[in-house]
């Protein structure tokens, strides 16, 4: 079921917010509330089916106010503004964030039309203005409207971001300079960013763009990390997202959509979690297939573009009833993931496993037949251990937790030796905010694409700098 959020019954100092899954948060509300009662509604005329309207430009937008019974007298549609701040505060609390702000009054006007006695609906015009001077960020405009004594509600979101030109299959970054003779590399170099979600905000990776073309610098952003956990009562492993990832799951339109709108692939790293299960103790293909189907449900619901294999911290000794099965186990997992998600990326952090190019499953296929891309551990000057061609591999990955000064050391060997990727792990958010990262990234982007890198848009604070 496609994820969406239903917002209704928001009164003065109160809100009732529903999520499409089983969770429901109910805040106190006054008695005798007729907000959005049966037969009443407020909706954007151009998209009446949408429960939230997203706007990102100046313009006049028509909304329809509909009430459940005929108006006893003539009147005019009125916008109620007294509870707007409280509604925004409640919304932030529900989403587990703090960065939604009320749209300043200087950036909108609301004109409610008049209606006659007996009317059951009337139009209103919302005008968004001075968008160019609006600060970068995410804004809410809670439209609580009164008509003939009845109150209806609709939420408008306004997003202001930096300029960009989206990547696509037909609009790629330019190829590296012709001085490098790499006939097997048919696509431009790809840059991959891991984000430690316990620390930093994933959206910042989308704000790095090439100065002239405005193309995003990073082709793939990897969320580090979801966990492979074990449910002892059910005797099965499951995909788990910790509390720092929950805001992303609660609001994928806010966190994931901005990256995907740029053409960036959003991939989730799956990391074992000291609970005795990992990629090496699937007991059979059916068990791997069951876990892959679990992963697919999350990908479909939240729009993930794929998953990354990261074989660390399994602590297999903790589950003696699940003995390790060797490389056949991890190959079962790869095959299962591609069976249930053939259109999704499957990548490998080339570390911690024991696979080699000549290891094959019972179908005669190896990891190179299932994987889309892979990259080395930090600073390793190597080719793919599982036999992926160089154009689908990145060597000498960079651990940027303490700085991005090593980027130039990694970039030049990758492009010179005809590799196709470069991975950068955990760019420090404080360094981004201080403006130190774009210059170091430029050492790679000038080499790969002939353009400098800039940071365009709002810096989004992560958990370490809130």
Describe the structure.
This protein is α/β, with parallel strands linked by helices and 466 residues long. The chain has ten helices and 26 strands. The protein has helices at 84-95, 246-250, 252-255, 257-261, 285-302, 327-340, 367-370, 407-416, 429-433, 437-449, and strands at 5-11, 14-19, 24-26, 41-44, 52-55, 59-66, 75-76, 78-80, 100-102, 108-112, 114-115, 121-128, 137-147, 150-160, 190-196, 208-210, 220-231, 236-240, 265-272, 306-309, 345-350, 373-376, 393-394, 398-399, 421-425, 453-455. Strands 15, 17, 18, 19, 20, 21, 22, 23, 24 and 25 form a ten-stranded mixed beta sheet that branches. A hairpin with a 4-residue loop joins β17 (220-231) and β18 (236-240). The model is unreliable at 1-34 (pLDDT under 50).
Q: How many distinct helices? A: 10
Q: Would you report the number of β strands?
A: 26
Runs in which pLDDT lies below 50 for 5 or more consecutive residues are 1-34
Rg is 25 Å
* Main sheet record: 10 strands, mixed
Bulk shape: globular
Helicity, as a percent range: 10-25%
Q: How far from one another are the termini?
A: 33 Å
Average pLDDT works out at: 90
Beta-strand fraction estimate: 25-35%
Helices and strands: which structural class? alpha/beta
